[in-house]
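QA checklist item 7 of 12: single-chain prediction sanity check.
[x] sequence parsed
[x] length recorded as 138
[x] structure emitted
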Amino acid sequence: MDRPIASPHEIRNPDTLPPALGFSHAVIAQSGRTVYLAGQTAQRTDGTVVGATVAEQFDVAAGNVVKALEAAGAHPQDLVSMQIFVTDVTEYRRLSKEVGEAYRRHFGRHYPAMALLEVRRLFEPAAKVELMCVAVTA
């Protein structure tokens, strides 16, 4: 699924900071409704966590983010912030190509302000990835 990259929000990546690859340094959200999403993992509707790797779980979690956005009347290009929680940064880095492909499949080339954080564990014991997002929609 190819997602549009146009966003109503203003992206700022100043030359005075390192290049922003796969994220944006700052996003100026345009006025509108703010949508706060709960952390999304690789859970199916029955609550089971699927995917053996960080990349596989990222793909499912990203799909769940899109579903939550759509339920709120928002779209991936409305995202202004994303926090990625993983239980293994080394695995995330090793599978970064696959994670990137999954990201673009769900969010296109729209990169909100982002952070990657390693945590010891997530609420669901089988979860390796959790995405927390904020969107602003007109």
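[x] summary fact logged: Strands lie at 10-12, 26-28, 33-36, 79-86, 113-118, 129-137.
[ ] second reviewer sign-off
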